[in-house]
Every structure is written in C-alpha cells, then in structure tokens.
Amino acid sequence: MKRFPDRSEAERAAQSPFLSTFTTSPAFSETSRYGNFRFTFPLTELMEAYKNQKCDGQEPVLRVFGTRLFKQEIEYVVLVHSPQSDEQFRDIPLLTSTSSPVVAYDRHQITWKAQAICETHHFQLETSGKTVEIQNKHPFQFYVWDHVSFVFHTKGMLTFPKKKLKASLSCLDLDPKVNLSCGENCSSLEAAKSFLKTLVDDEDGEEHA
Predict the structure, then answer these.
(1) Of 17, 100, 134, 176, whose CB count within 10 A is highest?
(2) Which pLDDT band, with edges at 50, 70 and 90, does 126 fall under?
(3) DSSP labels for the chain?
(4) Chain-centroid distance, C-alpha 170
(5) What is the pTM of this model?
(6) d(Cα 78, Cα 128) in Å, to the nearest integer?
(7) Beta-carbon contacts of residue 205 (< 8 Å; ≥ 6 apart)
(8) What gap in Å lies between CA 173 and CA 189, rounded to an integer?
(9) Is 31 within the bounds of a domain?
(10) Is residue 3 in some structural domain?
(11) CA distance 77 to 100
(12) Domain coverage including residue 39
C-alpha cells in the first residue's frame, strides 16, 4: 500500500481487505442491467479481430469521441475506426498516452484511470497506526460513477467461432434496481445456467457478435 511503503510483513498481514467495500459501482458489479447473459472478451482480442476483419490487417485508430453526463454516471467514449476512415473522423482528437486524463493508449495498451469507483455509500477510511480501517460515515455520501465505452465503427458485425462465443458467455443475476434489457429474461440465475447448457458447440460455424 503506497500510503505505508515501509510496512513490515506483520503490519501488511494485519491489514484487512477493504477495496471491495468501495468498488460498488455498476462497472464492478456481478449483477447485470442488460439481461442474464454477458459476453466477455479481452479488449486486445476485440481489437485484433477488428484489425483483421475491418482494417485489412492495419492497426485501428483510436480517438477521444466525447463524454456523456447522466444523473449519477459519467461515460467516457472512445471511437475505434479503420485507417481508411481517417478523413471522416479527422476533426476528433486522437487518443494517445497524454490526450485524456482518464483514458490512455500507448503501445497497444489501454489504461483506464478510474475517477469514481463507487455509488452512494456511507464508509470512509481511517488511519490507525500503519493500517487503515473502514468506518461508518453518516449521512450518506452521494457520488457519480464513471466508466469507459469503446465504439467500433463498422458497416458489418465482427464474427467469431461459435465455440469461442460460448466460452465467452456467462450467466448473471439481474440488477434488482435497474433493468435495461430488451426482451424476456430468465426467471432465475439457475434457469439461465440451464439454458446455457443447452447450447451446442460448433467448432466450424461462425456467429456475429
């Protein structure tokens, strides 16, 4: 912990975990606002697929598309496009290692410098010797939460092998407060897991994502 760089091993062991108490925004939630199922891909894998399928093997271009403000949410939007579309998006600033205080792009690496990782909460950290403790704080503290969205400019969808898509698919409980899903949801997490088991692997087929 940077606050106590000279702590001994015993002092480190005495520190109780606390990060999960503060990482409570939807960006870190194990529940879903968009239905029972979620595809999870490493961003590098999506970029590689976009590079090969939409950029003729050239490196994609990333730009700072904008910031969207909501009542309790800040969304930073990054545009990803092929080099062939440079003229179309030339007025939008490129995303580099220094062009944004929140998101950085350098040597194929994306860095998100999260500014707000929790929603409304009533905790604060108190220093006690060379450890920190979680203390209840009243009244409630209201915060906005932030996240980064990557928008891929394309006239058609990316394709992945069906087996890869199934391996990237997971089941989640629905967020009890916010439902942004379109269509029907499963009656429970167990029902979603049962449905997932019915999907058949197809190593040769491809699906859009």
Answers:
(1) 100
(2) confident
(3) -TTSTT--HHHHHTPPP-HHHH--SGGG-SEESS-SEEE---HHHHHHHHHHHHSTTSPPEEEEEEEEE-SSEEEEEEEEE-GGGTTTTTTSPBP-SSS-SSEEEETTEEEE--S----SEEEEEEEETTEEEEEEEEEEEP--EEEEEEEE--SS--EEEHHHHHHTEEE-EEPSS-----S---SSHHHHHHHHHTPPP-SS-EEE-
(4) 15
(5) 0.75
(6) 41
(7) 161, 162
(8) 5
(9) yes
(10) no
(11) 11
(12) 9-208
Strand partners, 123: 136
The distance between the two most distant Cα atoms of the chain, rounded to a whole number of Å, is 60
In a domain, 2, yes or no: no
User: Do the beta carbons of residue 145 and residue 116 sit within 8 Å?
Assistant: yes
Q: Domain count of the chain?
A: 1
| Range of lowest pLDDT (53-67, 88-102, 165-179) | 165-179
Task: Tell me if the bond preceding 5 is cis, omega within 30° of 0.
Answer: no
Position 101 in a domain:
yes
